[in-house]
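Limitations

Structures in this collection are predictions, not experimental determinations, and the ligand pose is part of the prediction. Treat each record accordingly. The example that follows, with S-adenosylmethionine as the small molecule, is included so readers can see exactly what is and is not provided: the inputs are given verbatim, and the output is the predicted complex.
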Amino acid sequence: METKDDLQCCVTTCGLPLNANYWDKQYQSQETGWDLQGVSPPLQTYIDGLTDKNIRILIPGCGNAYEAEYLIEQGFKNVTVIDIASTLVDTLKAKFQGKNIRILHGDFFEHQETYDLILEQTFFCALNPSLRERYAVKCFELLQDGGKVAGLLFNIVFEKPGPPYGGTKEEYVKLFHPIFDLQQFDTCVNSVKPRAGNELFIEMSKKTISSPHVKLYAISGITCSGCKKTIEENLMHIEGVEMVSINTDFSELMIVTHKPIALARLQQAIAHESKYQLNEFKN
Ligand SMILES: C[S@@+](CC[C@H](N)C(=O)[O-])C[C@H]1O[C@@H](n2cnc3c(N)ncnc32)[C@H](O)[C@@H]1O
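Predicted complex:
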């Protein structure tokens, strides 16, 4: 049973899994150091440049949803926010009562719908880095062809364990460019002061690739970066494979192909050791 100490222990240092419970406790204990108390200036500038107020916009891991508030004030008619923390979502429902916004309580990775724009603001960095391939594929799946992801990514490797988890421009480009055309991917010029110089403003549009050609698989048996490299190389040798990326805990594999490739063919390419298993990904 959970004790009062458990509830207070939370938060960023204790190594709890980053699940709904973790995030809910952050809001309950008001440990929300990421919260800017207002719309993020780079996103405000980006929103000011959008002309079509009817586009379908999603803000995943929206937190206090200042960007959504700004969008509504500017007359955007199709704004959806989703967050996994129920305490927060209750607050949002009260705050936005009667406003033209859809507020969803749920897991971004389970959400199914089609959008024109996904706004990113300290959601990617809040996820365990092992979920980055899943994030890229999910954004791809949620967008219509040409739909965009725009927002901010930390371009710094933090010394302290996350969240937030940082990263580098190089690794993000490697992850996203096979499935997105990158329009902006440079150091942000109008970050809030504490983040100045350490974040990228990104704008990227979904490439026209048929959905079955961008896939996530569950993989097992990899125990070190050496075998990870071998598996990636073996799969890259299959005709039609354009990109393979195995996540940081060696449990998921993202693959981009320009023609359909049967699971059995992928399995065959890594069958030199029976410990390697590749299967359909189930959320
Ligand atoms: C660091 S906070 C950022 C909040 C907000 N974007 C901001 O900048 O103030 C990360 C948010 O993502 C939410 N979150 C974490 N994992 C999630 C998931 N799988 N699906 C939806 N929301 C999630 C958390 O509840 C939290 O509100």
